[in-house]
Amino acid sequence: MRIDMIREGVSKISDYSSEKWQFQDDMTINVDGTTLPLLPWRFDRRLCSVRKLVIDDNVLRKACSYKSRFVGNCSDEIRTILYQELDICEWLLDDKIISVYTQAAGDKILSMILKTEKGILCNIEIALTLSENTPPVTKHEITGKEGLVCDRSINEQIPVEAIYVFGQEGKKEAYTDMDGAMLGLTPDEVRIADNIIEWLEKSPDGDTLQKTTNRINYLVDCVFQSVKTGDIVRMEEK
Amino acid sequence: MKKIKIAMFSVLSVHAEPYISSLPLREDYEWVAISIEKENRRFVDLKTIPSYVKIYETPEELLDAHPDLDAVVLTDSNDMTYSQFKLCAERGIKNLLLMKIPSMNIEEYEEMQRIAKEKEIIIQIELELLKDQTVRHMKQLYDSGAIGKLLSINISNTTVCLPPELKPWVTDPKRSYGRVCELRKGDGRYRGGCLTDHPHPFYLSRFLADSEFESIYADVSENFRDGRIVEEGVFVIGKMKNGVSVSIDPSYSRHENKLPPISPPGPGWEGYPKRVETEIVLNGEKGSIFGDCFHSGVYHTGLPYNTFAVEYLGGRNHYTTILNAFYDSVLNRTVPYTTLDTHKNNIIALTACYESIYTGKKIIL
Prior knowledge:
A: alpha+beta; seven-stranded mixed sheet; B: Rossmann fold; 2 domains; 28% helix; globular
């Protein structure tokens, strides 16, 4: 993660001076002495659109099932990706996971079947098998009474990009720039910048955010407990 | 070239139409007859059946008129396969091409195995994705060491659900599953939906992992369509005996166009642009392979519904391969690529999924 580039991006498109906030670590910022954990996946443009369609526009009338796949690179930490994907699941559905059955294959692959409070059946697949510096292959799909909402198109096995360059040396390069003001940042960096700008603008309550992260960590623990016991784990109220 | 004299029983199977369109083009098959009950003739465009093919009301009448048949394709609803199989065996038919579910009743299934062995009947079961080029290429890549040791398989075999106006038996538990069997106590739904219709991810898992299921956990979602009484959304996690983890989605999660269906369903009838999607991911110690069996096709927004629709690519399709393989087995008396014996563990795996849904527990096989 290029912290300086992100700081520059935030300064470019917001009125907040870079003195007002600092990175505490990769996933936390400090604003005027308040610690605010980041949830950058909630600022992914595609996922925001998925949530808008499902929750705000109610295009599915009623969601019935949720499916996500994250095939990432082997240097990623499985706990970090699991944390992200569990939060995405609850956030996209505006719902709470109440049970999980998990099966692991080695220490880099997890398959889960989960149920939510509203009765939505979920499947989350995580595999960290790709070589380092390979962008992850992801997909999130929600199926309901009136159809489905998905952040990938039909036949899109791997994420499409906005720009492809076929240069002289036969090396194919691809870019996706989503915001003119932040040209040069990767989509991952853009969503972190967007997250920081939102926190700076809205000054969310640090304790509430901390409770959210505690809950996600609890869900992560439940997943690993299911792996250990080979059984379904039902969540306690958190 | 020796021609195989062949007949079809019924047009109710989802795959009946492809045989109706494929058989007349074959030089190695002589399609002589088909049985279609009068009440079922509305489910097929009779103009697509060549005039030289005799149409009978029942399988019995057909067999009476054609005692010299080499083979029969059983393209009826699932619940008819067992009795029609026995009828063919009694009449001395030595070669049968069966659809994907010979029976979901293991006693019936084993009786079919016994009869087939006793009467030396060649039985090929139409598990078409075993012959799919994408599947075979993925296996070849894995076998060549492209991703190291295989750790997990993820298969989505998601489709539309043919509405009762087109295939009334598909969503009727008695006719798809063979008997009325509650999905879960008090659930109000019954076995016989997407799981029974989609054994494909199960045989693909066994083929790709080169192993058998050791355990299975499955759960079911609320149905996507109102008023249906068989399961439509299911997720399955299984473990193979060699340790490979398997995750399967066999759901009817691709919606149909809500406009009145046309028979047979043409392009644009789908709501979701593709009526079938089969995506496979193989995860190994050194990487992953992504495959899409029904990959990119041709797209249009034209008639009859002006929706965005996919036209699958033509040319040599699964039915060409199935009929080629069947011809070879019939002529040379060789063991087909799928038999009742090799398919049995798929039926057992499907049954384990239903047991897991019913009990809410992981099932050890």
